[in-house]
Amino acid sequence: MTDQHTVDSPCNCHPSRRAFLADLGMGFTGLALGAMLADDGITRAAETPASIATAPHFPPRAKSVIWIFLSGGYSHMETFDPKPALNQYAGMTFDKTPFENPANSPLQKKRFRSVPAEEINVRDVYPSIYPMQVGWKKHGECGIEITDWWPHLSQCVDDLCFVRNMWTTDNDHAAENQIHTGRHRLDETQPSIGAWAHYGLGTLNENLPKYVVLGGPTRPDTRQSIDSYYLGPQYAGVPLELDPQNPLPFGKRHASQSVEQQRREYELIHRLNQFSAIEYPEDRDLRARIRAYELAYRMQAAVPEAVNFKQETEATTKLYGLDNDATKLAGERLLGARRLVERGVRFVQVFPSAYGVWDSHQKLKDNHTRLCATVDLPVAGLMKDLRQRGLLEETLVVFCTEFGRTPGLELRGGGKDGRDHHPNGFTIWLAGAGIKKGYVHGATDELGYHALGDGHYVTDLHATVLHLLGLNNRRLEIPGRKRLDIDYGEPITDIFA
Q1: Does residue 375 sit in the same domain as residue 402?
Q2: Residue 139's beta-bridge partner residues?
Q3: How many CB atoms lie within 10 A of CB 40?
Q4: Segments of 195-270 assigned E as strands
């Protein structure tokens, strides 16, 4: 069947709507599979019944997740883990302080995996202590210390739970993928946390995809952060634009086509596909394609409505900072996230900032002052909005980055006012469904270098999120796929309410 809106010729550089829907990478096929096929078991025909997980393994604490990721690596010390010792011993080398030299700790090699040869890799061990670039104070009834760059979020501190002893192994920006997939770039790629959540759970709204991405992936090489790999493309994140006129390619009916014409076109496609389904009953891709058309038709109304902010009050849009150019981009994406979870989307992954902008090798004070101001009010607005709508008790909010920044001054290129990448210890926070309020879990050492104790590798965060969704990470298995023990992680039970 030829699509009446395209020219079927070799020189046509735009795919037809039919070809687009048939594409197994992104597009409506991914949406259909994402929102429907996990519910009927079609894509898991080879699995044993015990391995099929289309419902929670145990009663969930959270219905949905809003995963906020700041690309580039914000400084944990200048945000949520202030370190007075950095000021006290500023300019000294690690070995001149009364503390153990963290570069000599056995944790350095245990938790650090460099792609360059060790003898040429100078990152992470800059020995001259760089002082704090901002002040801090205690906030809320809980008295948790946050730096002065977060005046709005600090008002929400009694709802937040900080995990200050996170660690990862990649000291370069492939760590952006690592915090979402759990694997170092030298290892086999794994599905992202959003894909696992999608794979394990049924849908709350059959007119919308289960796993939506706003503002990302930030670059082609960060596609892993939303991908599903061997789970199948149906479980990958679906990027949406916050434009109700065009939230997704071919997401609305062509102007030259009436509602009745489109309905008849889809009916014909459906009948033809059903004939093929009878002939090839075991063809999973074909079955997925059939469902793709069904969901695509329904989504034409649901998706534009979900991303249309005209229904919001002026007070709400101001709460997210949509009235200010500096906060508008982050505010729109976070407001979009609230609207999507409100309508039943399971997992919304939000990139409120552009790729790598938090990577403050130089001018950390200038960069973090500006960047914190772009997200502080919108994130606080999200927290306040979720709370006042009663959504915070059923929505899990995760706020994270790929790694922290070095306690020492970065010296490469004549550096004098920045910090390098630091995977050995950093801070993230969670809030909402099933999470303790106004709580701090774990710590880094006095200089902010190492995550103390066992610390938490990034898959512990994954296990925590999945547990709150009612999923046992170790039961999410794929026949023929061997996962490493570190892939599963362990839930951070201390932070559970």
Answers
A1: yes
A2: 144
A3: 11
A4: 211-214, 238-240
The answer to the question of residue 132 being in a domain is yes
If we measure between CA atoms, which residue out of 80, 82, 166 comes closest to residue 131? 82
Cα torsion 60, 61, 62, 67: sign: negative
What b-and-e string marks burial along 178-211, b requiring 16 or more CB atoms within 10 Å of the CB? Answer: bbbbbbbbeeeebbbbbbbbbbbbebebbbbbbb
- Cα 475–397–61 angle (5° rounding)? 50
Q: Domain containing 90 — which CATH number?
A: 3.40.720.10
Share of the chain above pLDDT 90, in %: 64
Residue 30 lies in a domain: yes
- Residue-wise pLDDT tens digits, 341-375: 999 999 999 999 999 999 999 999 999 999 999 99
At 1, which amino acid appears? M
φ/ψ region of 448 (left if φ > 0, alpha if ψ in -120 to 50, else beta) reads: left
CA distance 182 to 175: 9
pTM of the predicted structure, to 2 decimals? 0.85
20 inside domain = yes
Which two structure tokens, joined as six digits, stand for 315?
């007070």
Query: What are the φ and ψ backbone dihedral angles of 281, each rounded to 5 degrees?
Result: -65, -20
**Pairing verdict, β 64-70 and 347-350:** parallel
* Domain extent at residue 403: 60-242+312-479
Question: Are 225 and 259 in the same domain?
Answer: no
Structure tokens at 446: 């006095």
User: Does 325 fall in a domain?
Assistant: yes
Task: Indicate whether 317 and 402 sit together in one domain.
Answer: yes
Q: Where are the alpha helices (DSSP H) in 17-96?
A: 17-22, 27-32, 38-40, 84-88
**Does 319 share its domain with 401?**
yes
